Structure formats: structure tokens, C-alpha cells
Amino acid sequence: MIDRRKFLAILGATVAAADARLRPAFAALPEGASGSMPTGMTERAYTFFTDPEVAFVKAAVARLIPADELGPGAVEAGVPYFMDQQLSGAYGAGAHFYNQGPFGSVTPFQGYQLPLSPAELYRVGIAATDRYCQETYGKPFAALDAAKQDEVLRGLQGIAGDLDLKDIPGTPFFARLLTDTMDGFFADPAYGGNKNMVGWKLVGFPGVASNYSDYIGRHNQPYQVEPAAMQSLQQADLSADPHGHPMHRHANAATGRPPTAQDWPDAPAEAAYVWSSGQRIFV
User: Fold this and answer.
1) In the chain, where are the structural domains located?
2) What is the pTM of this model?
3) N or C, which end of the chain has less CB nearby within 10 Å?
């Protein structure tokens, strides 16, 4: 288990050393500014994370949503790149955060209560965690074996959930890391993650909304279609009905009709929507 006192001492020193040089670099971007390119035109070049930070993030998200028998994990889905693009833009700068203070939380229901922007939080959190791993295990986080990585992440998770530490800069780092990992795994691929819509395929999410009026009365029947992303609409890869609603391609397109329960006699009604959390830690 992570040495709570030691980690917090490292974290405090890291924040103090970084504060003066971080502030000028993270001025809020102008309204609408973004570090990403237009949908479908992105090049996979990191614009926020340094090389050691990329190594940390890839190792961390690989433990949060690992590749397994259910399919690809966060790394394969491009989650690190998604996070990098978000941190390069308005989200990373905290452009829509209220950051005038007062800071500090009293209850667990107040949400984020730190003066750090998400980009600052990542920079400080990664540096402190890597320094802790280096001093404790002689290696940075990315070089640890999976069991040690899980131990460190569980320790960070415990610190992040400690009410007594809510006001110490960097303690919500794990919560932000986990939330952004899930967002990148399930967001539209236009934002850099969910490559090949692997997250949507895992849970049976159809993607962009269609016209579901023909299915309202079909209770307990899975809606099994090929997921469709926003880019499919932009490139006219999907047909549209007379009202302009995209028409999903059904998984059993060979039959030429919408799916029914008879098409999957051995599958439970909710099969298309199951998320097997028991196989994926922290989620």
C-alpha cells in the first residue's frame, strides 16, 4: 500500500516547486480555442504531455481499463491521445472553471475545489507519483510491474477519497485520471479516443441518435446495430430517413430486417448493454 505520509510530503514539495513555473504556461485560452484539429483530420502527435508523461499515462490507463477477453483496452482505444488533446485546449486550461476562490471543501458534495487547472493537476500529479515510485521502488511508475502499478493506483484512489485531504493540491489527481480515462474510452471518436468505437461496441451503444419510433413497442429486445460516429454523418457514410435522422446499420443486415429476440435465442435481453466491471479494476 502507498505510504500516505511520504507521498503527501513529495506532493507538497512538487506543488511548491512547480507553482511559479506552471502559472504563466496555463493562462486560459480564448473562448472556443482548442488544441485539436477538425473532426477526422487529427494527427496523432501529442501536444501537451512530455515523453515521460506519455509513458505514465499509457501505463496508468492500461491498468484502469486493460485489454482483456472482452476486447481492446484504454491504450488501444487511444485514450492517452484523447486526454492529451483535452488538456491542450480549453478543458486543460480550466477556461470554464470558476477559479476565484475561496477554495477548500467541507463536504464530499462540493465537487472540485482546487485552484489548479486540469492541466496543472496532471503535471503536478504525474511528477509527484513518479517521484514517489522512484524513491520507493527505484523506478518510475511506467517501469513497475502490473501488480505494483495497481498498488500505487489503489493508494492514490484512497488518498483521493480522503475527506481530510480535500484541500491539499493534487489529492484529486486519481479521480480526474479515472474520469478522463472513462470519458476517452466512451466519447465520440472525433475527440481522439474510442478508436474504432471499441467502447461503444463493448456496451452496445449505437452512437449518434436515430429514429427509434419503430422500436418503442418492442420490449426486452436488444437493439443490435453497428455503432455510428459523428464522422459517419459528416462523410455521408450513413443513410438518412426522410426527416434527416441517421439510419443505423443492423448487426444482422443479411436478413434485411430489424433484429428480433429470435435472432439471438441464447442471449439475455440486456446482453447488449452489459458492462463486466468485475474484469476491469477501478471501474
Assistant:
1) 4-197, 205-212+219-283
2) 0.74
3) N
